[in-house]
């Protein structure tokens, strides 16, 4: 029989968010916690994404924890291997290994209103926790579109986030589906080795030059000997991006100059006017994430590459068919089609106070107070929750802000004492969400003329933060108890009603 374990805090996931939460818990003096990870190692998206050319599009010194600076980043934009090694180093340095429960996929978690704790079932045992911190991340579960005939394809099929390293693409005819951040790294990495590469492009991205270089030995020596120099470097990188935010969130017209530079970047590498027209977006730059690459356009201009505008329509045997009718026989199909972002896969597994799943509660769109807490789910919070994403800076900045909020949340529970919980008021969530969505209307992500993965099925941007990272840090510095209801454990008077009866009573009370 699987062992049951009770902890003060259960953290779900061991990427940047989960490891950051674990480190912060220890720094707050909390050691009674576990990190539940479905895989056999830490790293999150930087473990899962190991495709050729995988690297970060945020400078290394900004894409790392402020409390764990790395003076030895090898490049200004580091690759997947070095970022994953950094996360392993964080787990070791801050003593997180004893708290890890690897190969523990969360199958279900349900709020117990009598005990004021979460009941958690995993693939390797059961747990209960006073507080759950969900750090599963928005880029964790790949999305493959429903393509007619795909099941009948006899060649190799995989997603960029589940790269099959045992399959050799050399000399193969390959279809690459998608033109997002992964695809623009994969294409130039595999183009020299494949016999034929057919890129299916629904919408062309805006691509700017990638100002990447090796960080010299003297620079690394200086950062090791004088850590203040690395902090200064990080501060400059942060400040530059903070100054850019207004163009994205308030004055999209100011992005016109950047758009001209992006068009010049296309013209520099692509001489064929027909191909250049295919690769030139018709929407305002910034509406989708601006991508960085020096090799993408040159790769597309090579004779063994075809670009099919309009995307993949269907598969007929081993023939892939574009929406323009183009037919191409291929040996492998690689999907770079993103992730389940606005429909979090863990959401159906989280059951709140009224027996309603998080997926049901968010059926009309994700909403969480300060990107952290959801109405109906006491003592549950998420890292990188709704409207915490960024279009131009480092998500580590947002994660650290949410860790501040998490720490104060736990302090407030300690002050309350006894068996208690904090349940965010629906009115507070609604007020926060209205403010965010009102600000969103002026942003390039809403007014830029594109359809992006930032938007949910209702056309609302429930992923990005419409402000600076400094502003978000101020908004999450501490918990405002007026936005929460304090829940105390019920006194054992008489028989305890069954869960269904309790839920019915609460619904009746809410309707009155």
Automatic annotation (TrEMBL):
Keyword Flavoprotein in annotation: yes
Nucleus listed as a keyword: no
Molecular functions (GO terms): monooxygenase activity
Domain of life assignment: Bacteria
Pfam family of the protein (one): FMO-like
Chain segments carrying region Disordered: 490-512
Keywords: FAD, Flavoprotein, Monooxygenase, Oxidoreductase
InterPro entries cross-referenced by the UniProt entry: FAD-bind_Monooxygenase_sf, FAD/NAD-bd_sf, Flavin_mOase-like
Signal sequence interval, chain numbering: none
Family: Belongs to the FAD-binding monooxygenase family.
PANTHER family: FAD_NAD(P)-BINDING DOMAIN-CONTAINING PROTEIN-RELATED (PTHR42877:SF4), L-ORNITHINE N(5)-MONOOXYGENASE-RELATED (PTHR42877)
The protein, known as: Baeyer-Villiger monooxygenase
Lineage of producing organism: Bacteria, Bacillati, Actinomycetota, Actinomycetes, Kitasatosporales
């Amino acid at each position: 029989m699987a062992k049951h374990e009770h902890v003060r805090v259960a953290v779900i996931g061991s990427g940047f968010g989960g490891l950051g939460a674990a480190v912060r818990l220890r720094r707050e003096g909390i050691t009674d916690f576990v990190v539940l990870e479905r895989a056999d190692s830490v790293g999150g998206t930087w473990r899962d994404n190991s495709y050729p050319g995988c690297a970060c599009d945020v400078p290394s010194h900004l894409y790392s924890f402020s409390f764990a600076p790395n003076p030895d980043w090898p490049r200004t934009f580091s690759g997947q291997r070095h970022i994953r090694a950094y996360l392993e180093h964080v787990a070791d340095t801050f003593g997180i290994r004893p708290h890890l429960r690897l190969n523990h996929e969360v199958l279900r978690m349900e709020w117990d209103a009598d005990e004021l704790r979460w009941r958690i079932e995993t693939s390797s045992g059961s747990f209960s926790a006073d507080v759950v911190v969900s750090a599963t991340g928005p880029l964790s579960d790949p999305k493959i579109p429903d393509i007619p005939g795909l099941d009948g394809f006899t060649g190799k099929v995989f997603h960029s986030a589940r790269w099959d390293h045992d399959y050799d693409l050399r000399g193969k005819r390959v279809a690459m589906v998608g033109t997002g951040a992964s695809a623009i790294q994969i294409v130039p990495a595999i183009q020299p080795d494949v016999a034929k590469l057919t890129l299916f492009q629904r919408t062309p991205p805006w691509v700017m030059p990638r100002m990447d270089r090796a960080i010299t030995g003297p620079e690394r020596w200086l950062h090791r000997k004088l850590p203040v120099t690395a902090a200064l470097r990080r501060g400059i990188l942060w400040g530059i991006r903070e100054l850019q935010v207004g163009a994205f969130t308030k004055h999209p017209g100011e992005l016109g100059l950047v758009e001209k530079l992006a068009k010049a970047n296309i013209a520099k590498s692509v001489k064929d006017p027909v191909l250049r027209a295919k690769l030139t977006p018709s929407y305002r730059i910034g509406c989708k994430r601006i991508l960085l690459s020096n090799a993408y356009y040159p790769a597309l201009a090579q004779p063994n590459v075809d670009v099919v505008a309009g995307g993949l329509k269907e598969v007929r045997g081993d023939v892939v068919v574009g929406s323009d009718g183009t037919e191409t026989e291929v040996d492998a199909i690689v999907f770079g089609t993103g992730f389940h972002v606005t429909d979090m896969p863990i959401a159906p597994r989280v059951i709140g106070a009224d027996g309603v799943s998080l997926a049901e509660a968010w059926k009309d769109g994700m909403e969480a107070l300060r990107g952290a807490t959801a109405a109906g789910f006491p003592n549950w919070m998420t890292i990188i929750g709704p409207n915490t994403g960024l279009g131009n800076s480092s998500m580590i900045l947002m994660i650290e802000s949410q860790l501040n909020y998490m720490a104060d949340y736990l302090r407030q529970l300690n002050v309350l004492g006894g068996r208690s919980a904090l349940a965010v008021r629906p009115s507070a969530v609604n007020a926060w969400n209205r403010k965010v969505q009102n600000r969103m209307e002026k942003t390039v992500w809403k007014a830029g003329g594109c359809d992006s993965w930032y938007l949910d099925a209702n056309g609302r941007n429930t992923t990005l933060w419409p402000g600076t990272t400094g502003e978000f840090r101020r908004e999450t510095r501490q918990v405002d108890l007026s936005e929460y209801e304090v829940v105390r454990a019920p006194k054992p008077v008489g028989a305890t009603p069954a869960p269904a009866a309790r839920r019915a009573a609460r619904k009746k009370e809410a309707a009155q």
